[in-house]
Each structure stands twice: as C-alpha cells, then as structure tokens.
C-alpha cells in the first residue's frame, strides 16, 4: 500500500508534538510536520526519526495565516491535521484550503462558534470533492460525547450530565490554550438548565470535584459545545455542565479573579495577558503533580425503569494527560486510512465511538473506568 502524505499544522506546539509522536507509529503515512519556524520543524522531524526509525518524516516552514492555498498546492497532502489553535474567533480558511487542494482535513477545535457553524459552512465543498472534513476531534466534543453515549445507552431518560477536566498542574500548557481560556473567562458560556439551553459566567464560580486518584480539586464552568450538542441529542431533562479546574490553587484563583474583573466591566480583553500567565506558570507548576484526569457523570432512568447514576473516570499519570486531547484525532486518521469516513463536513462525535478513542491510549499511562 502506498504511504499517504499527512501534513500536521502546528506540529511543534504542546499538542502537536504529542500527536506527531503518536502518528509516527502509523505505518501507512508519510508525515510532514510544520511550524512557522523551519528550524523547529526540522528539529522535530529529526527527533521523530530517532523515535520511529521506520517513519518517513520531514519538516517544513508553514504559516497557515499566509498564502496557505499555494503552500498546500505545493505539498499536495492526502490529509491535513490542524493542531494549531486557538480556534476561538477563527474562520475556516484552513479546512477550505485543504479541501480545495484535494486533502481530507481534521482538527482539534473545541471552540463553540467554530464547531457550531463548521458543517453548514464546509459540507457542500467537502462532498463535491469526495473528501472528509472533521472538526472537534479532541477531549470535547469527541471524547466527552462518546463517553456520554456509552454511559446512557438504552436509558429511558437522561436527567443530568456533568463533565469535568482536571489537568495535571505540572503539564506543559501552550499559549494557544491559555489564550482560549482567557477568551471566555468572565463571559457567558452555555449550560443546559431545566431542560433547555441557558448560560452562566465562565470561570467565575468554582466547586469542589472529587476524582479518585487525584483527590479534591476545584472546577468552574468553561465554554464548550457540549450543552448545545448533548441536550437535544439525549433529551436531557435537567442539566448539562462542563467544568474545568487547575491543580494550582494560585492559578485557579487568578483565573477566577480575572473572570470577575471582566464580568464586572473592569477588564474587556484578557487575551493579551496570556504570555504573562505562561511566565508565571513556570513558578506555580513546580510544586504540582504529573497526574490529571477527566470525569463524566450521568443520572437518569435506565432501560429497566430504575434510577441510574453512573460515572466514567480517566486518570492520566506520568504527565501523559496532554496526550488525551489528541487521541480522537489519531482515531479519525486511522479511520481515514481505512477509508471508513464518509465524505462531507462533520464533528468528530458523529464519527467516533468510545472504544475507538480509548484504543489509542493503550501505550500511555492512562486508565479509564466506568462505575455505577
């Protein structure tokens, strides 16, 4: 079988590097890792060659914000994976350019507006080219939705869904992630309340969350697509809340203070603060752990008419938590290789199931469990 040329945009970022390492074990691809810096891309390619001696890999300079169509026409990839971000406020220039050049395209987007309009914006183009465009192949909505689907399968009624991500305090965090958090901290974020779409203020109110293996950490509501996606899909009668928490109490308190200042009108744009927060984190992360996790809990009425309360937990040790968001992308790429994804534009939650995602985690210090 001929190897397929896969271009990874944002390959030298926090998630991009981990995805590149994971994809390096795929036998069916020739991997092209890109960065705005040719030096960084080439250095990553050399490291990947040492890590995966059988891998055909090269590095290239690519700025997806400039002359992207021309660059893709020269590279002629079979597929483009976008791991750049942040996707908050982004347009669809990358997937459009990929499709126009004849490539499948997948991304790790979790930004609400980007996900909400993706399919209607790109479906006609993707189908006309006979290609797949897939978004949201990350912890949310791909993994979170797959977990909920597995937990409530066959239930007569779903009342509540609570989802929480608790990353390790020592894990590396890139500027794109911090910028994404700051883009909605102190602003309205969607939740599902009393059986309909509602809103709360992002990062403003935190509550304790007890995840086995991590202990008690505080988490606050964050912006995701899950409430709008899962509420109607499962006819949830009461609530859906997606929250996240930082292990460092200083970091958690700091984000909440910024959220309160924006909510009160004292600060309008927090994103310029991202570089400062990343610098500060070099100190706060020192005393933190390498353990993070994710929790999904659902309640309702089971197939037998009895009340049900069930939970799925993920515990990532050895600083392997940052691999979790890229596992759905890897699962989509595996299905694309097998020609098992229909043409058109779609969100990854409609393509993947939980087993396909967790199978990608087998080589990492990541454990998942379902308990009733």
Structure, explained:
With 372 residues, this protein is α/β, with parallel strands linked by helices. It has two domains: 4-138 and 322-364, Rossmann fold, CATH 3.40.50.720; 140-316, Dihydrodipicolinate Reductase, domain 2 (2-Layer Sandwich). 36% of the residues lie in helices and 27% in strands. It has twelve helices and 16 strands. The protein has helices at 14-23, 38-51, 68-75, 93-100, 112-129, 139-152, 175-184, 226-234, 249-263, 274-284, 327-337, 354-358; strands at 4-9, 29-35, 56-61, 79-82, 104-107, 132-135, 157-166, 188-193, 196-201, 207-211, 215-221, 239-244, 292-301, 307-316, 344-347, 366-371. A seven-stranded parallel beta sheet has the order 3-2-1-4-5-6-15, with helices on both faces. Strands 10-11-12-7-13-14-16 form a seven-stranded mixed beta sheet. Strands 8-9 form a two-stranded antiparallel ribbon. β13 (292-301) and β14 form a beta hairpin. The relative contact order is 0.15. The mean pLDDT is 94.
